[in-house]
Amino acid sequence: MSGTGNREAVFPTRQSLGLMKAKLKGAQTGHDLLKRKSEALTKRFREITRRIDEAKRKMGRVMQIAAFSLAEVTYAVGGDIGYQVQESAKSARFRVRTKQENVSGVFLPAFESYTTEGNNDFGLTGLGKGGQQVQRCRETYARAVETLVELASLQTAFVILDEVIKVVNRRVNAIEHVIIPRTENTIKYINSELDELDREEFFRLKKVQNKKQRDTAAQDAEMRAKREAKAKADSDKENEDAGDEAGQPDILGEQEDQDVIF
Amino acid sequence: MAAPASAYKDRQFLAVIGDEDSVTGLLLAGIGHVTQPPDSQKNFLVVDSKTDNAAIEEAFERFTTERKDIGILLINQHIAERIRHRVDTYTAAFPALLEIPSKDHPYDPEKDSVLRRVRRLFGE
Lengths: 262, 124
Description:
The complex is a heterodimer.
Chain A: H1 14-77, H2 82-88, E1 94-103, E2 106-115, H3 131-245
Antiparallel strand pairs in A: 1-2
Chain B: E1 13-18, H1 20-28, E2 44-46, H2 53-66, E3 70-76, H3 77-82, H4 84-89, E4 96-100, H5 113-121
Keywords (chain A): Hydrogen ion transport, Ion transport, Membrane, Transport, Vacuole
Subcellular location (chain A): Vacuole membrane
Region (Disordered) (chain A): 210-262
C-alpha cells in the first residue's frame, strides 16, 4: 500500500480521486506555464547582463574623458572651482523620470533623463576665464551622466529580474518536486484503497453467493428427499392396490384375449 | 514582484557620494539639488581623506532609505570600498546604486557589487 509516502489527508473516495486528478492536471499546466515564463525572463536577464557589462566598460571610458575635461577646466580657470560649484548648486537641471516596461508580466522600471530648461546655477562659473572649457566640461559630463542613467536603469532591471526569476524558479521547483509527487502519491493511495474496497466487496459477494448456493442445495436436497419419500410411499400403496386386483383379471380390459383353442 | 508605481514615481534626482572632482563634474552637468530652506538637504556629499566612514555611511543611509526623491545614487568606487559591507548588502531596486570610477582610481569590474552578483549567478 502506498500510504507510506507523503500524501494529502483525504478520504479515499471516488470524489476525492476526481479532485486529485483535476489538481494534478492543474499543477502540470501551471508548471509548464511557469517554466516558460522563467525561460522568457532568463533570456531577458542574460541580455541585460550582457548590456550591463558593455555599459560598465563604456562608463569607464566616458568618465575618464569627463575627468580629463575637468582637469582642463582647472588648468584654464587657474584654480579650483569645486567649492564655487558646490555652493552655487541650487536646483537640479538634470533629472530622471521613470517609465516601465512589461516583460512577461513583470514591470521593469527604466530611467529616462531629461533636463529642465530655464535654471542655470553655474552661469557665472568661469566668468573670469576658462568659460569655454567650463562649457565643454558641462557638456561632457552631461553625456557621461546620460550613460550613467542608462546603466542605472539596466541595473535596476537586473536587480528586479533577479528577484523575480528567483521567485518563479522557486515556484517551478516547488510544483515539480513537492506538489506533483504528493498529488500523484495521493492518487495512488486512493486508487489502492479503492481497489482494496473492491476486492473486499467482491469477496463478500462471493461469500454471499456461496452461502446462497449452499442454502439452495440444502433446500433442494431436502425437497428431493421429501419428494422421494413421498414417491416411495405412493408406490408402496399402489403396489398394495395392485396386489388386491391381481386375482380377477379385467376381462373388459384392452389387453388381447388369448386365443381359445378347442 | 515588481515594485508598485508609488515606489519610484517621485524619484527624479540623482545623488552622488564622491571625491571633489567627481562631485564637481557631476554638479556641472546639473544634477545638484538643494531642498527647500527649512532643512535644505543637499543631494551630494564630498568625501576626502579626512571624512570618516561613519559620515559616509550616514549619507549612504540618508540617500538610500530616508529620501524618497532619489532615483539613482552614484558613488565613487574607492569610497564604496570603504563602506563595502553596506554596499554589498544593499539589494533594493530603488534607488539604483551605481559605482563610478574616479579620476585617481580607474574602474575595476572585480570590485563592483552588481558585476560580482552577475558572475556569481552565472557560476564563474
